[in-house]
Amino acid sequence: MGRAADIVKRFVETYSDGTPESYGTDEFLDLFASDAHCSVAPTNDKPMGESGGLEVLRNGLEANGAVLRNRKIELLEVIESGNKAAWTGIWSASIGLDGLAIPKGQEIRVLMAAFTKIRDGLIISHREYHTTPQGGGA
What we know:
Layout: H1 3-15, E1 32-40, E2 50-52, H2 55-65, E3 68-81, E4 84-95, E5 107-119, E6 122-130, E7 134-135
Parallel strand pairs: 1-6
Antiparallel strand pairs: 1-2, 3-4, 4-5, 5-6, 5-7
Protein backbone atom coordinates (compact mmCIF):
# COMPACT_ATOMS: atom_id res chain seq x y z
CA MET A 1 0.00 0.00 0.00
CA GLY A 2 1.09 3.56 -0.65
CA ARG A 3 0.72 6.82 1.22
CA ALA A 4 -2.92 7.54 0.28
CA ALA A 5 -4.07 4.06 1.32
CA ASP A 6 -2.13 4.33 4.58
CA ILE A 7 -3.86 7.61 5.42
CA VAL A 8 -7.27 6.09 4.62
CA LYS A 9 -6.44 3.24 7.01
CA ARG A 10 -5.45 5.75 9.72
CA PHE A 11 -8.68 7.65 9.10
CA VAL A 12 -10.72 4.48 9.56
CA GLU A 13 -8.79 3.53 12.72
CA THR A 14 -9.14 6.95 14.38
CA TYR A 15 -12.76 7.41 13.24
CA SER A 16 -13.72 4.03 14.71
CA ASP A 17 -13.24 5.08 18.34
CA GLY A 18 -16.88 4.99 19.42
CA THR A 19 -17.88 3.15 22.58
CA PRO A 20 -21.20 1.85 23.90
CA GLU A 21 -21.41 5.14 25.86
CA SER A 22 -20.31 7.59 23.14
CA TYR A 23 -20.51 8.16 19.40
CA GLY A 24 -16.76 8.79 19.26
CA THR A 25 -14.25 11.63 19.29
CA ASP A 26 -13.20 14.16 16.66
CA GLU A 27 -9.57 12.93 16.72
CA PHE A 28 -9.82 11.80 13.09
CA LEU A 29 -10.16 15.45 12.03
CA ASP A 30 -6.42 15.83 12.71
CA LEU A 31 -5.87 13.92 9.45
CA PHE A 32 -7.53 16.71 7.42
CA ALA A 33 -5.90 19.86 6.05
CA SER A 34 -7.49 23.06 7.38
CA ASP A 35 -8.68 23.89 3.84
CA ALA A 36 -10.05 20.40 3.11
CA HIS A 37 -13.24 20.05 1.09
CA CYS A 38 -15.74 17.45 2.28
CA SER A 39 -19.01 16.28 0.79
CA VAL A 40 -21.61 13.73 1.74
CA ALA A 41 -24.10 12.55 -0.89
CA PRO A 42 -27.82 12.94 -0.22
CA THR A 43 -29.29 10.78 2.56
CA ASN A 44 -32.74 10.39 4.13
CA ASP A 45 -31.76 12.93 6.81
CA LYS A 46 -30.14 15.35 4.34
CA PRO A 47 -31.88 14.99 0.96
CA MET A 48 -29.67 17.71 -0.56
CA GLY A 49 -26.47 16.19 0.81
CA GLU A 50 -23.85 18.43 2.33
CA SER A 51 -20.69 20.02 0.94
CA GLY A 52 -18.11 22.42 2.33
CA GLY A 53 -15.11 22.52 4.63
CA LEU A 54 -14.50 20.63 7.85
CA GLU A 55 -17.80 21.96 9.19
CA VAL A 56 -19.50 19.22 7.13
CA LEU A 57 -17.80 16.58 9.29
CA ARG A 58 -18.27 18.57 12.51
CA ASN A 59 -22.01 18.96 11.76
CA GLY A 60 -22.26 15.20 11.25
CA LEU A 61 -20.48 14.54 14.54
CA GLU A 62 -22.85 16.84 16.39
CA ALA A 63 -26.03 15.49 14.79
CA ASN A 64 -25.08 11.82 15.00
CA GLY A 65 -23.51 12.15 18.45
CA ALA A 66 -26.88 13.21 19.84
CA VAL A 67 -28.56 9.91 18.91
CA LEU A 68 -25.91 7.31 18.05
CA ARG A 69 -23.22 5.41 19.94
CA ASN A 70 -20.26 3.16 19.14
CA ARG A 71 -19.49 4.23 15.55
CA LYS A 72 -17.18 2.06 13.50
CA ILE A 73 -16.05 1.61 9.91
CA GLU A 74 -15.02 -1.81 8.66
CA LEU A 75 -12.69 -1.14 5.74
CA LEU A 76 -13.48 -3.52 2.89
CA GLU A 77 -11.26 -2.34 0.03
CA VAL A 78 -8.87 0.47 -0.90
CA ILE A 79 -7.76 1.25 -4.44
CA GLU A 80 -4.98 3.79 -4.69
CA SER A 81 -3.69 5.91 -7.56
CA GLY A 82 -0.97 8.41 -6.67
CA ASN A 83 -2.34 10.79 -4.02
CA LYS A 84 -5.93 9.52 -4.37
CA ALA A 85 -7.75 6.55 -2.86
CA ALA A 86 -11.16 5.07 -3.58
CA TRP A 87 -12.44 2.85 -0.81
CA THR A 88 -15.45 0.99 0.48
CA GLY A 89 -16.51 0.04 3.96
CA ILE A 90 -19.37 -0.74 6.27
CA TRP A 91 -20.21 2.08 8.66
CA SER A 92 -22.08 1.05 11.80
CA ALA A 93 -23.38 2.61 14.99
CA SER A 94 -25.98 1.82 17.64
CA ILE A 95 -29.07 3.83 18.51
CA GLY A 96 -28.39 5.58 21.83
CA LEU A 97 -31.81 7.00 22.74
CA ASP A 98 -35.25 5.70 23.57
CA GLY A 99 -38.29 6.98 21.71
CA LEU A 100 -36.96 6.75 18.15
CA ALA A 101 -38.36 4.63 15.31
CA ILE A 102 -35.47 2.20 15.80
CA PRO A 103 -35.12 0.75 19.32
CA LYS A 104 -32.30 1.88 21.61
CA GLY A 105 -29.31 -0.43 21.29
CA GLN A 106 -30.17 -1.55 17.73
CA GLU A 107 -27.16 -1.48 15.44
CA ILE A 108 -27.55 0.17 12.06
CA ARG A 109 -25.19 -0.54 9.18
CA VAL A 110 -24.52 1.33 5.96
CA LEU A 111 -22.46 0.29 2.98
CA MET A 112 -20.31 3.28 2.03
CA ALA A 113 -17.89 4.35 -0.67
CA ALA A 114 -15.48 7.25 -0.39
CA PHE A 115 -13.02 9.10 -2.58
CA THR A 116 -10.15 10.69 -0.68
CA LYS A 117 -7.33 12.92 -1.95
CA ILE A 118 -4.11 13.60 -0.03
CA ARG A 119 -1.69 16.57 -0.02
CA ASP A 120 1.39 16.78 2.20
CA GLY A 121 0.22 13.81 4.26
CA LEU A 122 -3.24 15.29 5.00
CA ILE A 123 -6.67 14.74 3.50
CA ILE A 124 -7.63 17.66 1.26
CA SER A 125 -10.75 16.19 -0.35
CA HIS A 126 -13.18 13.60 0.98
CA ARG A 127 -16.43 12.55 -0.73
CA GLU A 128 -18.76 9.94 0.80
CA TYR A 129 -21.68 7.98 -0.64
CA HIS A 130 -23.96 5.72 1.47
CA THR A 131 -26.70 3.17 1.08
CA THR A 132 -29.89 3.41 3.13
CA PRO A 133 -29.29 2.38 6.78
CA GLN A 134 -30.17 -1.19 7.64
CA GLY A 135 -30.80 -2.60 11.09
CA GLY A 136 -28.33 -5.38 11.77
CA GLY A 137 -26.93 -5.75 8.23
CA ALA A 138 -25.76 -3.72 5.26
